[in-house]
Specification:
The protein has ten helices and no strands. The chain is mainly α. α6 runs antiparallel to α7 and α6 packs antiparallel against α10.
Length: 202
């Protein structure tokens, strides 16, 4: 693999755009494009920053001697970092929705419809973001089969809990929040399984 292809693959694995890389390296987007299409090569003073950005050794970039195992590990680490970021942002927004409910209760004459509407909006943003991002992550066939069995059990448990609480309280307009918890719970379980799998492989 030539340097241009390597730089392209490394950038994609980091989920960075050419503009973002250009900004970090203090060059133009056109320069990044030329590097990735082998129209030019990075100046010597840009090699080290490139390697630091992509978290690789300079020798690996200059010689192009990535082993198959190194490529797989790099890809897995990038995906794990992205998953951690997605889950962290989603959790933050869910906590923000709880803070909103607490704060809005302290405001006198707060319209209940506005209170609930803002709460639902704040909850909707991380839910859509979390689902969208998780669907973009590549799934390994072995992991997918393992996840399917666990997901079936968890889904059945949450359906039972949802129906039970909803029928007992008759608060259907509130109990849908259980499904937000379900999405977060599934993401956490998958992340734990991924980390456990990596630990066993090592």
């Amino acid at each position: 693999m030539n340097m241009g292809n390597q730089l392209y693959e490394l950038r994609k694995s980091k989920n960075l755009s050419q503009e973002e890389v250009a900004e970090k390296l203090h060059v133009t987007r056109q320069t990044i494009s030329k590097w990735e299409t082998n129209q030019s090569v990075p100046d010597l003073d840009k090699i080290v920053p490139l390697c630091e950005l992509y978290e690789i050794e300079t020798d690996a970039l200059l010689r192009g001697n990535f082993s198959k195992k190194e490529k797989e590990e790099f890809s897995i680490n990038s995906i794990q970092r992205e998953k951690a970021k997605v889950i962290s942002i989603s959790f933050f927004l869910y906590f923000l929705s709880i803070i909103w409910i607490i704060m809005s209760e302290l405001i006198e004459n707060m319209n209940e419809n506005i209170q609930v509407g803002v709460f639902l909006l704040i909850c909707a943003i991380p839910t859509v973001y979390l689902i969208y991002k998780l669907m973009l992550f590549p799934k390994e066939e072995k992991k997918t089969k393992r996840y399917e069995e666990i997901d079936k059990i968890i889904s059945l448990a949450f359906i039972t809990i949802y129906l039970l609480i909803s029928f007992l309280t008759n608060a259907w307009e509130v109990t849908w929040i259980i499904w937000l918890i379900y999405v977060i719970f599934i993401a956490i379980i998958h992340t734990i399984l991924d980390l456990k799998g990596e630990s066993n492989e090592k």
